[in-house]
Automatic annotation (TrEMBL):
UniProt cross-references to SMART domains, sorted A to Z: HATPase_c
Record bears the keyword Lipid metabolism: no
Superkingdom of the source species: Bacteria
Annotated GO biological process: phosphorelay signal transduction system
Protein name: histidine kinase
Residue spans of biased composition, Polar residues class: 720-732
Stored Gene3D superfamilies: 6.10.340.10, Histidine kinase-like ATPase, C-terminal domain
Reaction catalysed by this enzyme: ATP + protein L-histidine = ADP + protein N-phospho-L-histidine
Length: 732
């Protein structure tokens, strides 16, 4: 967004800077050009004056007036000195400059070449080897290069008015030089007693030309120069020169109307005055050009500064507006993220929790005005309303489904509990070994059905009915979990630590271990065994369930461990191609109590499940004590209603039922002779037990007795009805 605003602004700024720079550069260049033209007058005018004097003395000397040698000896050093200054100035200010017109460069080069011929021509003149016409043409050609150069510089001047003013001054220079040329011819003719026809025609042309140029330029002169020109026309030297020219034009070159000295003095005065008029007119044009360049420079500088300031102001306004717009967009983004990450999830959580939510509630809607950004916010509000409405509908559907789900699970659990009670009564009455074995199989299947029902309750977010108040020994707990599996005979339990698990954790830990053991037996060969080991570690107790199956792929293991560490929502089951329901239940149970479950590769190539029970969930075996009988509520009022059984200790009896059939575990020792049944006796639990029956659920909060109150009961003690025959267990 800022880039979109800055690009045209920066472009405008660059254009303003470029325009101002060009105007300033043009003004400075024009001023410098004018100053260089004006500066050329200082060395050039004296050089031209001395060259004209040398030309006049040379022509008189060639005409036979030997007295001019002294004049030449005096004027030639001046010519050389002024020529050196002029040449140096031309090289430094015009020869190497790109703005110098090509015609002017050509004139400068030609002038340098002609000036290099001056020493040899002077020798020829001094030796009388050059004619008057040749010398006249040579000097005129050098001066013509100057005239052409001045004309080229005037044509290339900056500004039409400046060029016009300069062009009007050039005829004055030409007229002044033409007057000097005619005066030199006249002096030579007077010294020679006459001029040749060609020289005379040249003389006539020069006189007529400079008078015509003066008459044409008089109307274009500035008032100050025009006043000097009029003053010159009215002066005595002008009248003297005019009289001599009139006499010479009549063809009488032998007799002067005025004394020769007066004529020569008047001629020099007129030539100097005409050159002064040219310099004054040219200087005025140069000053006007300099003033114009200064004005242009000032205006360009002001315009450039204004353009730059305006561009900077535009950039500032653009950046300010862009930052304001960007700030609003940032606020919209933050509000949107806050709504999407905080407020909307809170609303959805309230919806999922069953709280009433008003879709028109303004606390969670965005308000950013009525412009385009506000319209975007309104569009997000509409999308948010739609999402909340969909979440409400989904929550209602999910709650309804969960209610039906839990209702069916609870009904199934009630039926299974009743079925287990009927089977227990039938087992007590049956004496036939084959029939008793069938009843035990039914008993085991019913136990698995009970666990499946509890799985449904756990997945539905409910609480299973089996609960214990007092701690239960770890060995007893593991045997109870293995007894709930179908192939419990393949399960081999090693010696476990002498430690107990607190009562509120027992039921869920039994269920968790039963699911892991069931997975181990289901995904390993029928002839293989599943080993259960336990050990006390720094953070609690570790229980390992290891099978000898094919194991899992590394990516599957990582995925399952991620699920066990952070159980996902129930909807994950709909997205999985292979829903591992048992592991999902394990993750839910582990997260409920902070138990860590981790899968890794077994040394046998199978899978080892490592269960870490934290220290705060453990208790010493001394805390295992009998409880007061708990009277369960009626079946119609609780999720898992069952009739109470007469037990003296609900922390042990649920995990070990009376054994009334031959043991099917391969590691179980032979049965011992029946023991007296006069009273419950403390015995050591067997390594593996057949299916067991779970006691009725506890609906009131579990309350543990104070540490000073409990009456220690051995972990292996079993309380059974007095009328029930029991099978003695081998002493550890």
């Amino acid at each position: 967004m800022l880039t979109i605003a800055l690009v045209p602004s920066v472009a405008l700024l660059l254009v303003g800077v470029a325009l101002a720079g060009y105007l300033i550069y043009d003004a400075v260049t024009g001023r410098d050009y004018t100053n260089r033209i004006r500066g050329s007058e200082a060395p050039s005018i004296p050089f031209l004056a001395s060259l004209q004097q040398e030309r006049q003395a040379t022509l008189s000397l060639l005409a036979g007036q030997s007295s001019q040698r002294a004049a030449l000896a005096a004027v030639r050093p001046k010519t050389d000195e002024n020529a050196a200054k002029t040449i140096e100035y031309l090289k430094d200010n015009f020869a190497d400059y790109s703005d110098t017109p090509p015609s002017v460069l050509k004139n400068i080069t030609t002038f340098f070449g002609l000036f290099q011929q001056l020493p040899s021509n002077r020798q020829a003149i001094d030796g009388g080897q050059m004619q008057i016409g040749q010398a006249f043409a040579y000097y005129n050609k050098m001066i013509d290069q100057f005239i052409d150069g001045v004309t080229g510089l005037a044509q290339n001047a900056r500004g039409a008015q400046n060029a016009f003013d300069r062009l009007t001054a050039i005829p004055l220079f030409t007229a002044a030089d033409a007057m000097q040329r005619s005066d030199a011819l006249a002096a030579a003719g007077l010294a020679a007693g006459g001029l040749t026809n060609d020289d005379f025609r040249t003389y006539v042309g020069q006189v007529g030309a400079y008078h015509a140029q003066l008459d044409a330029s008089a109307s274009k002169l500035i008032p100050e120069v025009k006043a000097k020109y009029d003053q010159l026309l009215a002066s005595q030297p002008w009248q003297t020169v005019t009289q001599v020219e009139t006499a010479f034009l009549r063809g009488d070159l032998s007799k002067l109307p005025v004394p020769q000295d007066q004529w020569r003095t008047a001629a020099r005065q007129v030539g100097t005055a005409l050159m002064g008029i040219f310099v004054l007119q040219s200087s005025n044009a140069s000053q006007a050009a300099i003033d114009d360049a200064d004005s242009t420079f000032t205006e360009s500088l002001i315009a450039g500064v204004v353009a730059v300031l305006f561009a900077v102001f535009v950039v500032f306004v653009a950046v300010r507006l862009s930052n304001r717009l960007i700030g609003r967009l940032h606020r919209l983004r933050e509000d949107t993220l806050d709504a999407a990450e905080v407020r909307l999830p809170e609303l959805v959580a309230r919806v999922q929790a069953g709280e009433p939510v008003d879709l028109e509630e303004g606390g969670h809607f965005l308000d950013h005005g009525t412009d385009e950004i506000g319209q975007v916010a309104d569009a997000f509000n509409k999308a948010q309303q739609t999402a909340i409405a969909a979440a409400i509908d989904e929550a209602k559907t999910r709650e309804g489904t969960k209610a039906v789900f839990l209702n069916i699970a609870h009904r199934s659990q009630v039926i299974v509990h009743r079925q287990l009670k009927v089977l227990d009564q039938a087992e007590r009455k049956q004496e036939d070994p084959e029939q008793l074995d069938t009843l035990f199989q039914l008993d085991h299947l019913s136990t698995r059905a009970r666990r499946n029902a509890e799985n449904l309750i756990i997945l539905g977010g409910g609480q299973p009915g089996r609960q214990w108040r007092n701690p239960v020994g770890l060995a007893e707990l593991v045997r109870g979990a293995s007894a709930e599996t179908e192939d419990f005979a393949r399960v081999k339990t090693a010696v476990l630590p002498q430690i107990a698990v607190r009562g509120p954790v027992v039921g869920d830990l039994v269920h968790l271990l039963a699911e892991l053991i069931d997975n181990a037996t289901a995904f390993s060969p029928p002839q293989s065994r599943v080993e259960i080991r336990g050990n006390v570690v720094g953070k609690g107790v570790v229980i390992e369930v290891e099978d000898q199956g094919l194991g899992l792929e590394p990516d599957q293991t990582e995925e399952i461990n991620t699920m066990l560490a952070d159980p996902p929502d129930f909807g994950i089951m709909a997205l999985s191609d292979e829903p591992r329901l048992g592991l999902f239940v394990v993750a839910r149970l582990a997260a409920r109590h902070g138990i860590q479950v981790h899968l890794r590769e077994s040394a046998y190539g199978g899978t080892r499940a490592i269960v870490l029970v934290r220290t705060d969930l453990l208790a010493p075996l001394a805390e295992s004590e009998p409880e007061q009988p708990i009277t369960p509520p009626k079946p119609e009022l609780v999720p898992n209603p069952v009739e109470p059984e007469t037990t003296a200790n609900d922390e042990v009896a649920p995990l070990k039922r009376p054994v009334r059939r031959p043991a099917r575990h391969r590691t179980e020792p032979p049965a011992a002779p029946p023991a007296p049944v006069t009273a419950p006796a403390a015995v050591t639990p067997p390594a593996v037990v057949p299916p067991v029956t779970v006691p009725p659920p506890v609906q009131q909060p579990s309350v543990q007795q104070p540490p000073s109150a409990p009456t220690p009961v051995p972990v292996g003690s079993v309380s059974e009805p007095m009328s029930q025959p029991t099978q003695a267990q081998p002493v550890a």
